[in-house]
Design brief:
The complex is a heterodimer of chains A (232) and B (683). With 232 residues, chain A is mainly alpha-helical. Chain A is built from 14 helices and no strands. Chain A has helices at residues 9-18, 22-29, 35-44, 48-58, 61-74, 77-85, 88-101, 103-112, 116-129, 133-148, 154-176, 187-196, 200-209, 214-228. Chain B folds into 4 domains: 10-112 and 139-175, Sec1/Munc18 (SM) protein, domain 1 (Rossmann fold), CATH 3.40.50.2060; 176-274 and 551-569 and 590-678, 3-Layer(aba) Sandwich (Rossmann fold), CATH 3.40.50.1910; 280-304 and 338-417, Sec1/Munc18 (SM) protein, domain 3a (Syntaxin Binding Protein 1, Chain A, domain 2, Alpha-Beta Complex), CATH 3.90.830; 435-517, Sec1/Munc18 (SM) protein, domain 3b (Serine Threonine Protein Phosphatase 5, Tetratricopeptide repeat), CATH 1.25.40. Chain B has 28 helices and 14 strands. In chain B, strands 6-7-14-13-9-8-12 form a 7-stranded mixed beta sheet, sandwiched between helices. In chain B, strands 2-1-3-4-5 form a 5-stranded parallel beta sheet. In chain B, strand 13, helix 27 and strand 14 (660-666) form a beta-alpha-beta unit. Chain B starts with 9 loop residues before the first helix and ends with a helix. Classes of the chains: A mainly alpha (232), B alpha/beta (683). At the A-B interface, helix 5, helix 7, helix 9, helix 11 and helix 14 of A face helix 4, helix 6, helix 8, helix 9 and helix 17 of B.
Chain lengths: 232, 683
Amino acid sequence: LTGKRGISFEEIARTAYDEGRGRLATQLLNYEPRAGRQVPLLLNMEEDEIALDKAIESGDTDLVFFVLLHLKKKLPLANFFRMINNRPVASSLIESSARETDPELLKDFYYQDDRRADGAHVILRDSLAQKDLSLKMEKLKLASKLLADAKEHALEAKALDESAKLLHMQEIFEKDLQQERFVGDSINETIFKLIRMGYSSRANKVKSEFKVPEKRFWWLKLRALVAKRDWG
Amino acid sequence: MAPHSTTIDTAHIKATAQKELLDLLVAVSPASSTLAFMWNLADRLFRYVVPPPTPGAAELLIAGQDHGIDKIFWVEENVVADVTQKNVVFLVRCTVRNALAIAAIYRSSLDATTYVTGEERSTDKPTAHVKSNAKIPGQQFEYNVLFVPRRTLVCEKILEDEGVLGDLTIGEFPLHFIPLEPDLLSLELEDAFEELYLRKDHTSIFYSARALMNIQRRYGLFPRIIGKGDCARRLADALIRMRGEEDASDSSSSPFALAPSSVLGELIVVDRESDFMTPLLTQLTYEGLIDETIGIHNSKIEVDSSLVGGPQQSGVATASSSSASPAAASSQQKKRPIPLNSEDKLFENLRDTNFAIVGNLLNKVARRLNDDYEGRHQAKTVSEIREFVGKLGSLQQEHQSLRLHTGLAEEIMKHTRSDIFNRILEVQQNLAAGVDPSSQHDAIEELIARNAPLESVLRLLCIESLVGQGLKPKDLDNFKREILQGYGYQHVLTLAALEKLQLLQSRTSITSSTSTRTNYATLRKSLKLIVDEVNEQNPDDIAYVYSGYAPLSVRLVQCVIQKPLMTRGRRGEDPSTPAGAGATVNWAATGWRGFEDVLKSVKGKTFDELQRGEEKAVRARNLLNGANEKRVTVVFFVGGCTFTEIAALRFVGRREEGKREIVICTTGIINGDRMMKAAMEKQ
């Protein structure tokens, strides 16, 4: 029968399944080229993994998603994660959709898969979205702690610590020098603003605190003085 | 109906899309009622199919008014202002975000119904189809959603979870390719790059396959599918699979449906991932530079109205009729959208040239135009004067367009003359040419200290990483610190994303991974990526688009369709002799043949698939259409292409004019900044 046009193996398989011959139905379904028809029946027959694989094979991400939503509802979360773990197409779909709708799920997923850096990034994203400064810092520390465990992320972990330190300094600057906003600026911007406003000792403090290289500092100073039109 | 054309008719694609949309709208509403019509601002796509109410709006809006479209809104801030009509139609892409937005609008509109009840509406029409909600008196709305290109289970699930699914009528509008130019089809999926390579979400490949399938349905199968890259392979697999599915469906419409085409030649699929470097370099053609400095979206740019002169007339820059659409007056802002396409003849001549010669060309046109105007003095007799007046319209139009492009060129000049721009360009060219990267580090550090745009700095570092197979760990850490301190610690995320994209990596992580990467150092020689003395005035090689660097992606295409030229170049003979002159070797060879070794140093899978059909069907088709000597070669870029690549392919196309026609397809138009923005966190 193969190769003939217009033959629906899905219908044959469905009949076989209805007759109680599950194995035969699965085998028959292999001949059905239209994934859109294979998958629902496979789910019906509780052939979850095969259904997922067939959906992935089809390249139709919506179909994959359909299976995933079905499975997520049906299975305990740990089992669900295990099933998608070794299927990159499935796990990246869950990742990208959870990014927009369900960050908690994402955290669980990364934790379970031991992907510390990715998990830390979710928390960092959280922190960036926070308006409240102390909450922001708290999340920063959490993210940094997660990163610090792995050697290859030492730089990132340190950067996040620095970031917390900078926020703290900026908060003080804002209190002391009421006319300017600092929180959220980068180190370069902070130094630039301080020099332009004429607080060069504070600028120097930032420079030494964060080990800003001499060359960059002088460029910043030059630009800030020009902006201030201070040709002295 | 079998088409008898010898080329892909892009106008047909547009016409079909417009007709389908109108049919959908008619189906949604009874012929005489009026719709409020909305779509998502983020989806600039629809400005093409349904142009916004600005001067110069094309056919469809007018047609749409005949079909009762009353007002058009962009869905923004989840608030729908001022709905006067009973029917509300959302036209949106089926994304999670859009589905959530619709649900929010719908619910907020329920709360605000009291506001709408003030609307007076004749009630002599039967209102049976109006959703009955007895609690709210007065005006009821009918909500319709048209998902593009299809309704997805995901979106329905979201609408269901939000509890609004039952109150919406959902349809789909299968819009895939949007013909930007007769030789350029784009899916205009702006996020395709990010989705494919960062999120590993292959939805856009699926839509690409559908779009190509539509072409195959009309013109027959591509006899050959050639490609390079993993995503390209997926696309080819999806196409082959869809053919199988089509065979299985019962609709045996035509006996030789899906037999190899007599119009189409090969389909060449290029994966963006196999050549990341090209879009990272600053494009140096006129259109490319406009995209780099101002940004082109859906063949339009937004410029200061001062640049184009009078507020109303400037729409004449294109030939399209400026209609007095209802909301035209309301859209008076400082920035004005200007269409950039081949309807503007001057632009068509300028767009693909190297920017260095644009000034000269503009000057020439100005002189000629002046002469033409002066011609009026020679007009002595009545008939001569009449003739001159007849020409006047087109002269004025040309004048307008000249003014626009002189203004644009000046804008760009301001930019290209700046110190920072030239620094960036210098570093780029050095890196591309293979200069020791560490010699460029001072310049990059200086750019950071001088607060050059972050995108530009990252592009430079990514180029270094691509060319040099990663950065030395020490250098990479140093630059990471510079960037975090210079642009903010939130870019920890950006840097991580660039690493995931394999754009910015440390050398150690590259040597430990097993996957092959594009090796520009070897390819530079074997494919002659660097051409030292490139003629910008009168280009003899595609390298003119980057003033000396030939895009690898287009070189790969040349390996398929310009074998003699490419082999000559490799043997070191004079590459400037035109193709086909004395070609004997390999002339008949097809596919990748002859370049297998070169392809090994390009990232991703290599493939070459033949699509055959039943003998009978092939013969029938050939009998019907006559075997064309000249075939259409379709070049498809998965993950986006740049304007420079388009220009380079047009250049190749002109050389091959007698033998084939090249049509370029892509998931979207991309440039280096857009690539970097994909890695950055969206605020």
